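Progress report, Aim 2. The chain analyzed during this reporting quarter is listed below.
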Amino acid sequence: MTIEKYPAKAHALRVEQKLYALAPMYFSNAAEAPVLLFASPRTVYWPFCDQTQPFRQNRNFYYLSGCDLPDSYVTYDTSSRTLVLYLPPVDDDEVIWSGQPISIDKAKAQFDVDDVRYSDNLVNDIVSGFSSRTIFTVESLTGSGHAKFLGELPKFVKAIAEADSHLLEALEESRMIKDEYEIGLMRQAAAISNHAHLKVMSTLNLHTNETHIHAEFVYHSLRAGSKNQSYDPICCSGHSCSTLHYVKNDEDFAGRQLILIDAGAEWKHYASDVTRTFPINGEWTVEARAIYDLVLDMQTSCEKLVAPGASWEELHLLAHKILVKGFLKLGIFKGGSEEEILESRVSSAFFPHGLGHMLGMDTHDTGGKANYSDPDPMFRYLRIRRNLEPGMVVTVEPGIYFSPFLINPYIRGDEGLGLGGKFIDTDVLEKYWDVGGVRIEDDVVVTDTGRENFTNVPKDPDVLSAIIMKALGTS
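Predicted structure tokens for the chain:
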């Protein structure tokens, strides 16, 4: 069966069921069952200017409406299971500049909701229909920006439960599991990114600066219909590859070994997130190839184990074990067993981030249950702290980085870092600084029986070399 509309009503029902499971006391009296109310962002102008700030739809609002318009609202009555979308009323002056907005009839045909009305009816509808009910939301709707419509609302309803933690958790758990419609959108986002990444590599003869590959990626994304990136592209080279979220993107390639590009196109509010690392001139140095092979081993070994029930923490630990074993073989680590070195946590100096994260409407999507106060540096920045379930979409993105800001504190033995620095051979390490960093990242959905990898950008090091050398005319 083909689903033609974004399944907002199914999403609303999922959120209701999650909320009931978390807080059944809200539903003890059907006549007082909660009403959910969400708003899209208001149109905001830059200070002292007549231009509006870029619009980004509220992801929770979109999840329950499928509507990509500002100044709108959606209500969901958990008693009658009725979903109503409220659009901004037609402004004749605005039509002159921006054209005719979507009509009520067209909106009813386009969106998966029970009714569509204008937002100047919202307060009256709530007062007349839900005066004995509690209005639940996860944000402030009565403050700045929404006061025109909702400022007087608390006087006329039983209560407004703003920033309700139970509702927020219900939304996060619901959004974490993607349905087939959402997975289809994410496949398309990944397909656009796959093409754009390959174009960056295959046109490297045109590029001498990080800005050029940034532009190349965005150009091909835009041509394919993706008007927004899932996040600011990370386009780095040389030592800059050791900065995890580098977005400066303006340095020349001259004298550098590697390019790392972490970029993902967005498709109808759903993200992709893909990273590839390759040699600038098509030829791997001995050190760069050794590190690349090691990261590839970490990535493919962990990806093969993505399946329902798999512990993400165990997969992350496996990546560190492979790193430790590889560094002992390369001589970067010395003087201890694999177990001793792993226990010292010195591998976190080279692989400081987590194995990956949830992916969905947000690049770092909901439901991961991270614990950023974890005293263990190996797990502190791990964004997923739970077992995998069918319908989750995750990134698998180990990396190895040679950053003095990460490594030197271990070598010095700074307070709180233990004795891990004693396992680093600084003479051998000296040969690897110019590698900068290597990361490889794919987008993977957990299926009932295993996994599906959305990312088909080449990552075999010899294939990458061939692509780059062909682009440069040196093959």
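The mean pLDDT is 95. The chain is about 35% helix and 15% strand. These observations will guide the mutagenesis work planned for the next reporting period.
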